[in-house]
Amino acid sequence: MDDLIIRSFLMFILLCFFLVLTRHISTSRSNNRNGLKGSKTKAEKNIVLVEGVRTPFLVSGSDYKDILAHDLARGALQGLLKRTGCPKDAVDYIVFGTVIQEVKTSNIAREAALGAGFSDKIPAHTVTMACISSNQSITSAMGILASGGADAVIAGGVETMSDVPIRVNRSLRKILLSLNKAKTMGARLGLLSSIRPKHFAPE
């Protein structure tokens, strides 16, 4: 893997969290058409970027090797709250982008939010869109704000290359699933005896 690819992977470790607030602006417009006067009031939302934080860039397999992705996200969330002084209950929604999802923490936004001390009543969801996942999370946050679904949203992205989920061979998965359903010891032993070295080749 060349340096360019490694650097692009390191970019995934970046955690940019944006606390976005909205304020309502009322404008009045007067139109003169055919000698008739009319006024129109339009409520517009001004979406504001308040602050951003990130964790340090590190080479994969180094100081972050024992830290899971949602732990990185949790630390960034806590850092954001500390920097802004924003109370947790002022946040209406949390959205994250990620590429390589861990089965145990498929909704990494939710896991990070709970770990950072946010209420379980604050909704959170995770988006994935390859290398622009974090950008998509910001776009999603803006959509939530623009539609009036929230007044304050935290958006960001998280990735770690220090603990990439490695899938076992599909043929081995089939054996293991069958093993789980086997009723007798003989059936279990028969399945176990069918396992060969080729079954351990990762997909």
From TrEMBL:
GO terms, molecular function: acyltransferase activity, transferring groups other than amino-acyl groups
GO BP, one annotated term: fatty acid beta-oxidation
Domain of life per record: Eukaryota
Recorded GO CC terms: mitochondrion
Keywords for this protein: Acyltransferase, Fatty acid metabolism, Lipid metabolism, Transferase
Official protein name in the record: Trifunctional enzyme subunit beta, mitochondrial
Species assigned in the record: Paramuricea clavata (Red gorgonian)
Pfam families xref list: Thiolase_N
Domain Thiolase N-terminal: 47-183
Similarity remark: Belongs to the thiolase-like superfamily. Thiolase family.
